[in-house]
Amino acid sequence: MTRSEEITAKALKFVDGDRYKLSLVVAKRANQLHNGEKPLVDIPNLKNYKFADIALMEIAEGKVSLDGIVKAEE
Fold first, then answer.
1. What does 6-60 look like in DSSP terms, one character per residue?
2. Of residues 73 and 51, which shows the higher confidence score?
3. Is 10 left (phi over 0), alpha (psi -120 to 50) or beta?
């Protein structure tokens, strides 16, 4: 398991270093996961993670972007 600081740093690269945008994407994706969406990453012991942690991992792997979330909600 990678440290959360490393995951966050990697995820920041996908939002051009904008922490506000990252928090927005994490919040929107965590809400989708809470509402029943399936995670896009393969994580062992998925029950041990919070939705925000899973969302951050998805962003860090490039599987989720702000554009994709905004379009999905329209």
1. HHHHHHHHHTTT-HHHHHHHHHHHHHHHHTTPPPSS--TTGGGS-HHHHHHHHHH
2. 51
3. alpha
How far apart are alpha carbons 29 and 31 in whole angstroms?
A: 5
CATH number, position 48: 3.90.940.10
Does residue 72 form part of some domain? no
pLDDT 10s digits, 9-55: 999 998 889 999 999 999 999 999 999 999 999 888 888 899 999 99
What's the pTM?
0.84
> Looking at the domain assignment, is residue 19 inside a domain?
yes
Q: Examine residue 73 and state whether it is found in any structural domain, yes or no.
A: no
What is the total count of domains within the chain? Answer: 1
